[in-house]
Amino acid sequence: MKHELKLEEWTALQELIDNSIIERYDGDLERSGPGHHGEIYYWPLDTDHIRTLLVELWGELLTAETIEDFFKRLTKNGAEEWPHAYCEDDEAERPLSSYYTEEDEAADWFDAVVRGEAAAQG
Fold this sequence. Notes:
By secondary structure, the chain is mainly alpha-helical.
């Protein structure tokens, strides 16, 4: 017996599926924005990878039509964050100071110790 999902259940399922794909996609992105409220959205350039992720993760639970709906939404509407993906436009605008790493911090601390500006931790 099939049951229709309530709106809040469908919304929660959409968020779960979207997030599962967004978290795993590690390809290139295209940036668009800012939107009406200043938000920036990103679209995946490797759409085949999006479809593959949907099928691998959700193919046994969702119909092909539902997977296609999710595919269209993710590739047409985009998302604000894709944590493991890469956007060339963002990197071009990224200030050099944002490339400061833990290794840079350790090297700066060591240099300060050598100059006597910081105490060595023991």
